[in-house]
Specification:
single chain, alpha/beta, Rossmann fold, 7 strands, binds guanosine-5'-diphosphate
Length: 200
């Protein structure tokens, strides 16, 4: 089983020139408020590394974290890459942000990406931006799995129903959706074992 040893913030890239290349990466994408920062912190056992509860849409940058882990006592280093949250509509202003040129540039022709996780609040279902991203990932052959977040808000029966709806919405198999909660750590082992398979 993959063990996280240490994790540290590397940099925030604010434009295409700032993007880093050459390190195997596990990428996190999703709408603002989908629970991305909380999940990253939960996986890394670090309550503060990724900043949670930020004003949605404010941070349009790509954040890199250097993760040091061991798999069967062999050290593995890779990046966690936190993509900017999309789909933010500020109340009063009808301005919705689609995923940006920066995200598109990051995701295109990038063999560093070993796995991308698309986070969706299990209670919300998929948004148009989520569907657009799934189409983009399929087209560009980026390996991805959906993570249905905040499962603690629902009963087990509702969680499975939520997963079924998401699978239908996104036209993907239910086995491609992991159910997690950053509060209870539900699903942590599932996510880590998938990362282990992809990074090894
Ligand atoms: P981000 O914008 O995608 O990075 O989302 P955050 O991680 O900042 O989370 C957005 C909000 O949802 C915050 O108020 C979190 O406390 C809350 N949240 C995130 N994950 C969970 C979860 O697993 N369970 C519950 N109950 N709340 C969560």
């Amino acid at each position: 089983m993959l063990k996280i040893k240490t994790a540290k913030f590397v940099k925030s890239a604010v434009d295409v020139n700032g993007l880093l290349r050459g390190t195997p990466s596990v990428v996190f994408a999703g709408k603002s408020n989908s629970g991305k920062s909380s999940l990253i912190n939960m996986l890394l056992n670090n309550s503060k590394l990724a900043r949670t509860g930020q004003t949605p849409g404010l941070t349009q940058c790509v954040n890199y974290f250097d993760v040091s882990s061991s798999i069967n006592n062999i050290n593995k280093n890779f990046f966690f890459v936190d993509l900017p949250g999309y789909g933010y509509a500020k109340s009063g202003k009808a301005k919705t942000k689609d995923f940006s040129a920066l995200v598109e540039a990051y995701l295109t022709d990038n063999s560093d990406i070993k796995q991308l996780f698309l986070l969706i609040d299990i209670r919300n279902g998929a948004s148009d931006n989520d569907r657009m991203l799934v189409n983009f990932l399929n087209y560009h052959q980026v390996p991805f799995t959906v993570i249905a977040t905040k499962a603690d808000k629902l009963s087990k029966v509702q969680q499975f129903a939520g997963r079924r709806v998401l699978a239908g919405d996104l036209a993907i198999g239910e086995q491609n959706i992991l159910i997690t909660s950053s509060q209870t750590k539900q699903g942590r082992d599932d996510v880590l074992s998938l990362i282990e398979q992809k990074i090894n």
